[in-house]
Every structure is written in structure tokens, then in C-alpha cells.
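User: Please fill in residues for this 900-position structure.
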């Protein structure tokens, strides 16, 4: 009954004119407190500057100074009631109607716009206005009930707020019931006798395909054109967890009463706990360490009945239940779902097995689940995860970043601290209400959102198509045909083997160009393999590891020498201490290396023996170029050649390349030279790979950070990143140059024809490297090492062929995603219109039913709701039509028929 008459909630205390209430007490401002007013000829006036509060059942502390006060109303014929309004707390004398046909006291209060704290013996009531104000404050500002009522007490008496009756507990109870009443009313349950079922008190996304609501699939493929993409009917979901929404164990769980268990976004408690019990969950300390669930990945609407509590971190058992509920929400006829989750590369592996083994988990029959990872999180994974799970390469996704749920936690985090200590049902109701409001705001802004998305999609589709067409024109037609076939095969095999997507990644570093570690491993395996001759005698086994250690020492020497050169004329103590520590560490490494030298060189190494180059140079080797970014004329450093300071970075260690070919042959170190050649080749490949990676980073920083800097501070930070990358590029260039100079000292190889000298102009960043999809890059040339023949027996264009192949594939993927976005947004526009028309039709039916039953209030409210949704549909239809005409976009044949 309370729900059916709640349409009068806009009335306030000052507007009471119900004939059933014969007298009422009101307030004349918070500063003059109360004046008792009667509808009869009574004119008694009570006023004072100090008022000692008391209520029917309240015990007031008597520590306040005594003085004149207005006594509360104590007329047995006209019982007093404490009324809480936005203007303050008021004590009113109420005379109820006692006619034979009169309603009960609580219903009379409802008709007067008052919500009683008790339905049997009401002594406190809240105006509908104050309850609405509290819920709005709670939604927008995260105001807790305690803080809100504290504000009301201060509004009542700014000097003695503690003397105002405390109705905090009553406010929490009434607010819970008020939330329930509003949700029942909004979803039409005041107009029908049906009881709500799971998720019936929750709004969902109007732009997502929902069979039976905004599209009709009951007739199969009727009205669908032949060119309708198979991926159009897809449910896009994003999954995530939030650890700020934690919850403490209730003090008296047996006293808790749930008003809306499972009717909103949070899942029903009993079934969820049964699922956890099967999974053998053990709860400790907090009842819930956070919440997790699913939302629409394209529009950011929470999926009803798919939000779960965490008990011990974000585990698969929790997210399995949430995903199962989301996939079963209004998906009849939808056979494809794309899910984005931070750890989908691992989570999705055994998802179907976990669902099949649980009686509480299920997915629609025949539904194909395609895993994806958000574009922000995927960069924290292995490199292979990017092409396998990023939305850029998943057909039918359009332009989705998969990270929209991170933004949805922001409004929830505002309310989460105040919900931490609530009872379990109360907390769920607060979160349900917050998520429902979030979806409501998304719904009323959907027209503007889709209009903006269509503008972006049309622009992106045109630009990406032009870039792809230009790139295709430059490629050989036979190669393009082959690339298209391989792309189609890749997407066909993606579901069974995500590794098939690796064709979108340049694979130069995997299996073609051996790294130093791979070379060392090959040498060690070769000397232990029974089918291969032993390269070194037993006493010299492990020479490859010893040589690799020497190469590592050389790289450390180059790095330390550059650090020393960076010191200015007057370095700080911290800088000198850092260099001293590095020198001490390097000295220890060299000492250990020299201790092992006799084992592999066959003779003791004497530091004073001129035949062995264990000496300290006066400067760096002049045989290789130093790619230093330090201008020595402008930044003179300290005297690094001070003989009193030990400088291990200038020590020449006894590697075969330093000993010399003649001396090595005399000592029988021919095999050792061959091993060093192999390791040097791997070292060169490592250095060139690092140069390519850092040059790509540098180009990206210029494109995304330096060029877009809008202030001096952001520009300074951007250039700091650039200089950091330049330092890494120059260091690896110096290592490569040193490696090449050492290869020149070793005989019997032709690697110097393959590994050419580096020039400083080769180390400039190119946007071809950072953004292969950018327009206007087809005539830009790259340095020689980008097209390096790493196999040695093929033409010098093999790697460039792969590079342009990957560039073509990625450009096509970019064009396809933008084209899909245009198609999806156009259909989402129609689905939104259908959704609004469907809701308008529903409320129109409620209005006719209420009219037949003679319920005037119900009829008016249903007519108002129907008109609101009609207005939303008309606004969306007009906006979309004008936008399509403005953009001159051809409208495709409508492939779905709305139920409106």
C-alpha cells in the first residue's frame, strides 16, 4: 500500500492539507524553534532562545545550563511526533482521523507525505523530501547517514545540536525502505501484483542488443540482409574487481533482514555462498575484501545480478560466478560474447571446464566466448599477449579499450567507506542503488554518447582506409593475396590457438637472430652432446660461460666509463660515491675473471707480463666510436685519469680478441677464438635489438608526449623521457661498436660484411618504427639494421618483407576496427530507440491497467513515465537523423526490428 501511494512524495511539512488530519504543529524557522499551530481557534505561542530537546522515548542529558524552554507537546488526545525535514527536526502534534473508514495511522502519515519510522506505533516520521535529499546526497557526495543527520541537527540548532533528538538509526532504517519503495515504483511493481525476481530492480544498457526488448530475434533471420556481419549480435563484457568496497563481519548477523536480495546488481546471497562452499572457500577477518563483476564493455553499464563479493582476493571462483550470471542476462539468441579481463590469457584457459564441473555455473548453449585484455593492462603482460588478446586484433570489437570498468569504480569508491561497517543486506542495497543510478545516468546520456562515437568512427574509418589503400598500392599484388589468405586462416584458428595471432608481431628476435645467451647455450650443449666432438679438453669445459662473463665485464666497463664522463667539474659526494661503488663491484668481477683465466688459457696470467694484456689504459680504446651524448667542451668532467684512483673500467681483460691471433695460436686457443666469435655475434644482435626497441620508444614519446605537451612542466617531463631513451640508445650503440672492433681482431669470419658500422644519423627515431599505421610513411627509408639479414643465407630484404607484412596486417586491422565501429554504432542507435519505445509501451500498458482499476495516482504516474520514455525515443531519433544527414553517411538497411 505504501508503494502504491508513494507518488505524493513531493509534499513537504508546510504543504500538508489532507482533510483527514485535523491539527498539526509546525515550525517557524530554526532560530525560533517551534510554535504550536492549530486548525481550530487555538493561538498559544511558545518561543524561547534556548530549547531543551526531548522526545517521547528519549533520555536527554541534563548537563546543559538551565533556562527557559518550550516543553514538547504532551497532549494525550493529540500525540506528538518527531518529524525530520530538510529544514530541521520538528516536534508536531498530530490528530489522526478516527472515522470508521479511516486508514491506519501509518497510512495517514504516508498520505500526508511522511514516512513513519515504525508502522505500528509511529513516533518519528521523515518527510519524503528529506529522504530524497539524503539519497541524492548519498549518491553524488557519498554522504553517510551519520553525517547527513548531523547536518540536520545543526540546521535545527546551531548552538546546541546535541540537544536535538537523535534519529540516526531511524534514518538508516527509513532510507533502506525508501530505496526499496522507489525501485519498486520505478520498475513498475506498484502497478502489478507480481513479485520481483532476480535482477528485476536493475536497469541495463539501452544500446546493447537485448532480445525481446530492443530487438526481435523470434523470427530467425527475417529482415536480415545478406551482408549482415556474423559478429553483429555480440555481448561485450568487461570484468574487474574493486578492493576499496570491503565489508566487515556483521555484529549480529541473525538480526539482519534483506529487502532486495539478488533483485538488483549484487547476486543473491544463498546461491552464491553455496557456490563458494563447493569451491571450499575459507573466509577470514573481513566478510568481503572487495567486489567484482561485469559491465557492458562498450557503454559502461553494470550488468544486473552479476556483482559478487570477494572473500580472499580476486579469485577465479568469484569471477566465474559473476561471468556466468552476466552471460545469462537477456542473451537468448545471442551466440557470441567478447570478455575483457586483466588476466584473460590465464583465466580463460580452463573456464569451460570450471563451468562444466559446477552445478551453480552455466553459460547459454552454443555461446562462443572470445577472451580479450584491456589495452592498458595488456602492456604489463608478455609481448605475445598484445597481439593475441588486445582488442585491436579481435574481429567484431570495433573500437573498445576494455578498460571502461575502471571508471565505474570511481562513484562506488565514494560510498564504499561508509558502507564498510553496514549490515550485509544494507550494504548490498546501497551498492545496488548506486549502480542503478550509474546506469540511469548512462541511459539518459546515451544519445549524446552515441552521436559523438559516430562522428569519431566515421573520421577514423576514412583516415584508416586511406592509409591502408596507400599501403596496399605499394605492395606486390601476389604478396597482398598471400597476406589476406594468411590473415583469414589466422582468425579462423584463433579460438583454438591464440598463438596464431603472432603473425601480427615482427618476429625477428624469435628464432632468427641468435642472442648472446642463445649462442652460449648452443656452445655448452655442443660440448656435452655425444654426437659432436668435444670443442675443449675436459680442463677447459665451460669456456663459453667464462667468455660470456668477459663480454659482460666489457659492457660494464663501457657503461661505467660513460657514467664517469657524465660527471661535471665539481661532482657531488653522492655522484662520486655511486661511481666508487660501481668501480668496486667491477673490480671484484675482474678479479674473479682473472682467477679463472689460467683454466682456459692454459698458462698463468701475469699482470706484469707484456704478452698478456692485463693492463690499465689511459683512455678508452680508440678503435671504436663512442656514441656519447655528453658535450665535453660544455661539460668538462673531473680528472678521470688520476693515477691515484683505481679505474677498473680502463682495464683490458685477457680475451682472445685482446691477446691476438698469433699468440692464441701459439697457446692452442683456436677453439676459444671461435667461441668468442659466436658470442660476439650474439652480443651484436642483442645491441641492435635494444637500439631498435629504444628508437621505437623514442618515436612514440615524440608522437604522444612531446608534440602534445601543453605546458612547460609537461614539456620538461617529456624531454626528460627523451633524454633517458637517448642515453640507452647511445650506450647500446657504443657496445655494438666495441663488439665490432673486437670482431675485427678475430680471424676466419665474414661477420663484418653483415654488421656494418653505425653512424650517428642511423640513431634517429622514425615514426615508421613507432606507428606503422600512421599515414604518409610509405616513402620513408630506414637504416640498414632495420633490414638486417639475420639468417645469413637469404637476401637482404627478408626482414623488411616481414616488417612490411606486419605493417600491412596492422593497418588492415585498424581499418577493419574503425569500419566495424561505424556499423556497430549505427545499430546501437536503433537499439537505443527501440529500448526507449519498449519501456514507453510497458508504462502505457501499466497506465491502461491502472485506469481500469480506478487508481488515479497510478494512472498519472504511469502516463508520466511513458511520456518520459517517448521523449527519450523522439530525442534520440531526431538527433541521429540530423547527425546522419549532416555527416552524409548512407544508412544501411535495418537488420533488426525493434519491439517498440
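Assistant: Residues filled in for all 900 positions:
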Amino acid at each position: 500500500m505504501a508503494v502504491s501511494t508513494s507518488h505524493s512524495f513531493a509534499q513537504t511539512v508546510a504543504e500538508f492539507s489532507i482533510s483527514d488530519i485535523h491539527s498539526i504543529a509546525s515550525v517557524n524557522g530554526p532560530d525560533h524553534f517551534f510554535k504550536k499551530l492549530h486548525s481550530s481557534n487555538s493561538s498559544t505561542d511558545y518561543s524561547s532562545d534556548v530549547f531543551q530537546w526531548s522526545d517521547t522515548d528519549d533520555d536527554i542529558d541534563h548537563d546543559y545550563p538551565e533556562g527557559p524552554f518550550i516543553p514538547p507537546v504532551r497532549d494525550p488526545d493529540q500525540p506528538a511526533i518527531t518529524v525530520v525535514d530538510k529544514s530541521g527536526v520538528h516536534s508536531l502534534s498530530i490528530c489522526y482521523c478516527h472515522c470508521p473508514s479511516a486508514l491506519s495511522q501509518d497510512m495517514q502519515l504516508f498520505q500526508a507525505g511522511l514516512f513513519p519510522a515504525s508502522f505500528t506505533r509511529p513516533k518519528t516520521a521523515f518527510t519524503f523530501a528529506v529522504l530524497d535529499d539524503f539519497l541524492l546526497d548519498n549518491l553524488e557526495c557519498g554522504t553517510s547517514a551519520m553525517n547527513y543527520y548531523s547536518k540536520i541537527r545543526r540546521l535545527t540548532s546551531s548552538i546546541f545540536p546535541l540537544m536535538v533528538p537523535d534519529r540516526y538509526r531511524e534514518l538508516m532504517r527509513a532510507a533502506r525502505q525508501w530505496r526499496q519503495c522507489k525501485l519498486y515504483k520505478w520498475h513498475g511493481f506498484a502497478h502489478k501484483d507480481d513479485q520481483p525476481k532476480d535482477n528485476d530492480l536493475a536497469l541495463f544498457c539501452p544500446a546493447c542488443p537485448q532480445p525481446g526488448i530492443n530487438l526481435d530475434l523470434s523470427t530467425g533471420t527475417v529482415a536480415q540482409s545478406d551482408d549482415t556481419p556474423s559478429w553483429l549480435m555480440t555481448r561485450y563484457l568487461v570484468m574487474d574487481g574493486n578492493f576499496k568496497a570491503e565489508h566487515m563481519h556483521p555484529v549480529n548477523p541473525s538480526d539482519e533482514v534483506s529487502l532486495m536480495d539478488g533483485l538488483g546488481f549484487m547476486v543473491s546471497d544463498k546461491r552464491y555462498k553455496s557456490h563458494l562452499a563447493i569451491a571450499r572457500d575459507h573466509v577470514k577477518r573481513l566478510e568481503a575484501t572487495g567486489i567484482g563483476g561485469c559491465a557492458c564493455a562498450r557503454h559502461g553499464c553494470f550488468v544486473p545480478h552479476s556483482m559478487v563479493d570477494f572473500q580472499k582476493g580476486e579469485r577465479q571462483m568469484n569471477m566465474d560466478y559473476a561471468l556466468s550470471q552476466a552471460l545469462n542476462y537477456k542473451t537468448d539468441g545471442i551466440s557470441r560474447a567478447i570478455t575483457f579481463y586483466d588476466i584473460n590469457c590465464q583465466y580463460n584457459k580452463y573456464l569451460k571446464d570450471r563451468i562444466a564441473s559446477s552445478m551453480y555455473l552455466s553459460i547459454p548453449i552454443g555461446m562462443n566466448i572470445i577472451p580479450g585484455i584491456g589495452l592498458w593492462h595488456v602492456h604489463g603482460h608478455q609481448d605475445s599477449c598484445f597481439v593475441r588478446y588486445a582488442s585491436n586484433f579481435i574481429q567484431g570489437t570495433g573500437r573498445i579499450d576494455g578498460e571502461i570498468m575502471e571508471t565505474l569504480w570511481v562513484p562506488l569508491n565514494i560510498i564504499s567507506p561508509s558502507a564498510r561497517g553496514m549490515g550485509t543486506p544494507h550494504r548490498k542495497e546501497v551498492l545496488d542503488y548506486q549502480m542503478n543510478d550509474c546506469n540511469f545516468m548512462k541511459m539518459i546520456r546515451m544519445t549524446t554518447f552515441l552521436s559523438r562515437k559516430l562522428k569519431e568512427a566515421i573520421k577514423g574509418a576514412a583516415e584508416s582506409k586511406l592509409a591502408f589503400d596507400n599501403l596496399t598500392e605499394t605492395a606486390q599484388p601476389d604478396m597482398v593475396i598471400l597476406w589476406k589468405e594468411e590473415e583469414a586462416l589466422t582468425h579462423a584458428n584463433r579460438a583454438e590457438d591464440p598463438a596464431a595471432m603472432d603473425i601480427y608481431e615482427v618476429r625477428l628476435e624469435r628464432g632468427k637472430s641468435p642472442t648472446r645467451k642463445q649462442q652460449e647455450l648452443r656452445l655448452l650443449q655442443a660440448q656435452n652432446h655425444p654426437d659432436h666432438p668435444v670443442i675443449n679438453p675436459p680442463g677447459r669445459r665451460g669456456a663459453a660461460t667464462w667468455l660470456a662473463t668477459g663480454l659482460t665485464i666489457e659492457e660494464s666497463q663501457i657503461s661505467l666509463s660513460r657514467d664517469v664522463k657524465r660527471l661535471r667539474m665539481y661532482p657531488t659526494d653522492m655522484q662520486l660515491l655511486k661511481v666508487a661503488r660501481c668501480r668496486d663491484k667491477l673490480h671484484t668481477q675482474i678479479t674473479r675473471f682473472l682467477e679463472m683465466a689460467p683454466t682456459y688459457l692454459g698458462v698463468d696470467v701475469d699482470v706484469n707480463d707484456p704478452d698478456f694484456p692485463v693492463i690499465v689504459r689511459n683512455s678508452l680504446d680508440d678503435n671504436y666510436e663512442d656514441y656519447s651524448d655528453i658535450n665535453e667542451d660544455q661539460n668538462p668532467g673531473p680528472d678521470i685519469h688520476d693515477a691515484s684512483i683505481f679505474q677498473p673500467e680502463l682495464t683490458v681483460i685477457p680475451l682472445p680478441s685482446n691477446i691476438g691471433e698469433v699468440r692464441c695460436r701459439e697457446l692452442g686457443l683456436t677453439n676459444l677464438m671461435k667461441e668468442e666469435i659466436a658470442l660476439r655475434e650474439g652480443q651484436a644482435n642483442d645491441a641492435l635489438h635494444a637500439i631498435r626497441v629504444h628508437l621505437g620508444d623514442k618515436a612514440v614519446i615524440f608522437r604522444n608526449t612531446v608534440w602534445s605537451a601543453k605546458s612547460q612542466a609537461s614539456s620538461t617531463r617529456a624531454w626528460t623521457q627523451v633524454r633517458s631513451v637517448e642515453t640507452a640508445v647511445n650506450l647500446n650503440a657504443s657496445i655494438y661498436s666495441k663488439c665490432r672492433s673486437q670482431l675485427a681482431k678475430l680471424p676466419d669470419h665474414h661477420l663484418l660484411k653483415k654488421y656494418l658500422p653505425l653512424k650517428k644519423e642511423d640513431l634517429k627515431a622514425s615514426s615508421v618504427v613507432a606507428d606503422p599505421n600512421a599515414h604518409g610513411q610509405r616513402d620513408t627509408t630506414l637504416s640498414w639494421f632495420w633490414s638486417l639479414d639475420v639468417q645469413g643465407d637469404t637476401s637482404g630484404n627478408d626482414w623488411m618483407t616481414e616488417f612490411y607484412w606486419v605493417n600491412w596486417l596492422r593497418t588492415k586491422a585498424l581499418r577493419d576496427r574503425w569500419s566495424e565501429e561505424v556499423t556497430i554504432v549505427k545499430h546501437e542507435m536503433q537499439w537505443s530507440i527501440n529500448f526507449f519505445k519498449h519501456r514507453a509501451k510497458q508504462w502505457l500498458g501499466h497506465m491502461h491497467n491502472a485506469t481500469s482499476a480506478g487508481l488515479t495516482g497510478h494512472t498519472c504516474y504511469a502516463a508520466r513515465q511513458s511520456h518520459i520514455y517517448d521523449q527519450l525515443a523522439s530525442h534520440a531519433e531526431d538527433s541521429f537523423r540530423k547527425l546522419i544527414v549532416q555527416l552524409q553517411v548512407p544508412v544501411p538497411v535495418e537488420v533488426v526490428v525493434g519491439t517498440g
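For context: Residues 798-853 form the longest helix (56 residues).
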